[in-house]
Specification:
Blueprint: H1 37-62, H2 73-92, E1 96-97, H3 98-112, H4 119-139, E2 140-141, H5 151-175, H6 199-202, E3 204-209, E4 218-223
Parallel strand pairs: 1-2
Antiparallel strand pairs: 3-4
């Protein structure tokens, strides 16, 4: 929700993977940088009632899904990666529970990448999160095993992902030197305390590319083009 993003879809709500449709808040949405709970609910209803019933039907009428072979190299690589990760989480046998790491990360995000952010706070978060991630992979304790339903192991995997996503959110917020929508930088506001956009330098969509473990992700941008109406500042006064 707080990433204000989602998967790219075409007019029929199909992603770049043929046959994978994405509806509701999971796609890139109609709401841009101002995604609110009620807006997400409305989009889920609109997509579910008025779009998906027709687009999926048309797709299935012309494309019959076949069996998915588990022998594909991509499947084997993904399976091996996940298996290794689960075994690593179980083998650490540290002293701290998954919940303590989850709460610590949440506190960092709330303090430094919440509704109001600033440069110093974001830099602090970008120091704290990698340190917390390193501690997580050295001292987390996950009970049970991987041979049955294991909610502790499932949550450990999610928190490991949260550590990666949290760091990326802080990095993205630091790079975007303006205030826009749900992103409010304290250094970039008007005399009245309103958000100060920088349309000259940040009128674009940004996406980050994973560049391998330990490497800084690569930032890609796609300019936003408005053909009929010029950008204006919304005022509630």
């Amino acid at each position: 929700h707080y990433t204000m993003g989602g998967l790219w879809v075409d007019y029929n709500l199909m992603s770049t993977i043929p046959g994978l449709f994405v509806c509701g808040e999971a796609n890139f949405s109609d709401h841009g940088a101002n995604r609110l709970g009620a807006s997400a609910l409305m989009q889920g209803l609109a997509d579910g009632y008025f779009i998906i019933p027709y687009t999926i039907g048309n797709y299935l009428a012309s494309s019959k899904p076949g069996a998915v072979p588990a022998s594909h190299p991509a499947f084997k690589d993904a399976e091996a990666t996940v298996t290794d990760r689960l075994k690593k989480l179980l083998s650490i046998q540290g002293h701290r529970t998954v919940d303590t790491f989850h709460r610590t990360l949440g506190k960092i995000m709330w303090d430094y990448c919440g509704m109001a952010r600033n440069e110093q706070g974001l830099k602090t978060a970008l120091e704290k999160i990698p340190a917390l991630r390193e501690e997580f992979w050295q001292d987390v304790r996950v009970l049970g095993d991987d041979g049955e339903v294991n909610q502790s192991l499932e949550k450990a995997g999610r928190v490991a992902d949260f550590l990666e996503l949290g760091e990326l959110m802080c990095l993205d917020a630091l790079e975007r030197r303006e205030s826009c929508g749900g992103h409010f930088r304290e250094e970039y506001q008007t005399e009245d305390g309103e958000a100060a956009r920088d349309d000259e330098n940040f009128c674009h969509v940004a996406a980050w590319e994973y560049a391998g473990e330990g490497n800084r992700p690569v930032r890609h941008i796609e300019p936003l083009v408005f053909e009929f109406l010029p950008l204006q500042t919304r005022s509630y006064k």
